[in-house]
Here is the input.
Amino acid sequence: MQTLIVTAPGELEWREVPDPPSPAAAAALVRPTVTAVCDFDHLIVAGNAPVPYPFAIGHEMVGEVVETGSEVCTVSAGDDVIVPFQISCGSCGPCTKGLTSCCAAVPWLSSYGLGDASGGWGAATSDLVTVPYADAMLIKLPESIPAPLAAVTSCNVTDAYRCVAPQLASEPGAPVLVAAGGFQNIAFIATVLAITLGSEQVDVVGLRAPLAAKAQALGARIINSVADVENATYPIAADCSLDPTMLAAALSGTAPGGTCTITSVYPAGLVPVPLLDLFAACATINVGQPHVRGLLPDVLELLEQRTGLADVLIDQEHDWDHAIEAFTGAGKHVVVRT
Ligand SMILES: [Zn+2]
Ligand SMILES: [Zn+2]
Here is the structure.
């Protein structure tokens, strides 16, 4: 089969690789039909994250079930499905609590599209992927959600959702701060969801053009400098920046009793954290990967209620043959098999 490989920073090529074997009893073979480019893909294509080359890329996907193992009972060949980017078994201790990014049945970070470092599970920009726990992982594609948007729920939309949606459900209308930077699309999606979910004030710092203009047109307020972020102001804050200065601003900006969710990854050692501000605010920090499979039912319910988000959140669609352009461009790109 064909799969898209990153061979060096900025260098991608299609390669012929062996097909996956027939699925084990609990597994399914899925043919990806839509893959979306994640903010993290931009980092690893550029060589700015510790993922050794070469590796097959792509982890946000919708696909068609091709073959199922003998024990699989929730999906069958021909079904269109959303494939969460993380591998999860659905039955271990963390999975049964919805903490599917911490599945105990597989090594931490087991996921698609990140090479051998994440388990070598294959990638979304391929003709086939193996889903080892098909009943636990796969969700049938809802008819009312466009497949390109559904593909983005397998990582970025769900990552953004957990930053603002549960918090706004607990405190309707609460002001939100989003610190953008390295994860521009997650920050933009969090901003859009916060507006959609009724936050009375959504402030964004670090969002670049053209997303800043789009966010502003939708009702967000753009803060031009991180120095202008007010302390102890936001019941809901999100750090999507990969920038310690912005992280500190998001943490210090969190209001008394508020919550700051950190989607950024800081792999390079210690990062300064304004603990006294957090102590004074009795703030809560959420840190870690999103529990994609655990959250997906709630995310899909929201997207079924709020139609039209695909046009807002997706910048460009590419044919499958032009996937390389998608993975080397800026913005939220999706690749569609025709
Ligand atoms: Zn991702
Ligand atoms: Zn598990």
